[in-house]
Specification:
This protein is α/β, with parallel strands linked by helices. It has one domain (about 5-230): TIM Barrel, CATH 3.20.20. About 45% of the residues lie in helices and about 15% in strands. It contains eleven helices and eight strands. It has helices at about 5-15, 30-35, 50-55, 65-75, 95-110, 125-130, 145-150, 165-185, 195-205, 225-230, 250-265; strands at about 20-25, 40-45, 80-85, 115, 135-140, 190, 210, 220-225. An eight-stranded parallel β-sheet has the order 7-6-5-4-3-2-1-8. β3 (about 80-85), α5 and β4 form a beta-alpha-beta unit. The radius of gyration is 20 Å and the shape is globular. The model is unreliable at about 145-155 (pLDDT under 50).
Length: about 270
């Protein structure tokens, strides 16, 4: 798609059945590269803390840190739509705190929209942010902290469910959550671990685009992937066996070892 990407343009892509390409990026340099490559959405993920700063969990990232990363990515993107993840905290404190944080990320960070993880657990926050005129990308689905609650029938007399029954129950729940978030004003959805059963059902149940990162597939309206994983940008790519489009870490390691060898051998160094 030519020209500046907008929320309306993304929603039209769903109606036209054109897949939406989204990537997770944390820095100015890579933001320039993915924007030049023609992606539709550049998402500043809260995984920046783990992947760039060595933090132990996404829960450690602060609003100030997300703001800093968002500003860097914003400076590198001219065409794609820029989304910035909420850190853990503001949404859990209530609608007013969520709106205030959203304004920081859009006004000061330059984000075009904000992404709310576990938004199905806080629909009132999503509604308040959307009501304030800030586009919302609402995440829901199976995550480590929701898997047990979602997969288990409640009540003392609950009857064990077969795999097909459980799949149907989960699908019904995810469809209901997607509709709830759409009604709350979400502009996009991020369905985590959608799978080929619940994924198509959710994508068909709502008018807004449904993207997918972990566990996503061609049954959704688009795909999200962290560029660090897609091109092997992190040190982990030196040793793991994950399928990816390139292994930048290996290329970098080989180049740095060659540089070190030239220095130690007293050779003229390439470049400045």
């Amino acid at each position: 798609m030519k020209g500046k990407i907008t929320v309306a343009a993304l929603q039209q892509m769903k109606r036209d059945r054109r897949k939406i390409v989204a990537v997770v990026v944390y820095d100015y340099q890579m933001a320039q590269i993915v924007d030049r490559a023609g992606v539709d959405i550049v998402s500043v993920g809260d995984s920046v803390g783990v992947n760039m700063w060595g933090q132990g969990s996404e829960l450690e990232v602060t609003l100030d840190q997300m703001l800093l990363a968002c500003q860097a990515v914003r400076r590198g993107v001219g065409r794609a739509l820029v989304s910035c993840d909420f850190p853990y905290g503001p949404m859990q404190k209530g609608a007013d705190a969520a709106v205030a944080a959203a304004r920081v990320l859009t006004r000061d960070g330059g984000a075009d929209m904000v992404k709310l993880d576990a938004a199905a657990d806080h629909p009132e926050a999503a509604k308040a942010i959307a009501g304030a005129g800030i586009p919302v990308w609402a995440q829901f689905g199976i995550t480590p902290h929701t898997m047990a609650r979602r997969a288990s029938p409640s009540g003392p007399a609950a009857t064990p469910m077969s795999i097909p029954e459980l799949a149907a129950a989960l699908t019904d729940r995810f469809v209901a959550e997607a509709k709830l978030l759409e009604a709350a004003g979400a502009a996009l959805l991020d369905f985590t671990h959608s799978g080929p059963v619940a994924g198509p059902a959710v994508a068909q149940a709502v008018a807004i685009p449904v993207m997918g990162g972990l566990g996503g597939g061609p049954w959704l309206d688009g795909r999200v992937r962290a560029i660090g994983n897609a091109i092997g940008y992190t040190a982990a790519a030196l040793d793991d066996g994950i399928e990816r489009y390139a292994n930048v870490a290996r290329v970098a390691l080989d180049a740095i070892q060659a540089y070190a060898g030239d220095v130690r051998a007293g050779k003229q160094i390439k470049g400045k």
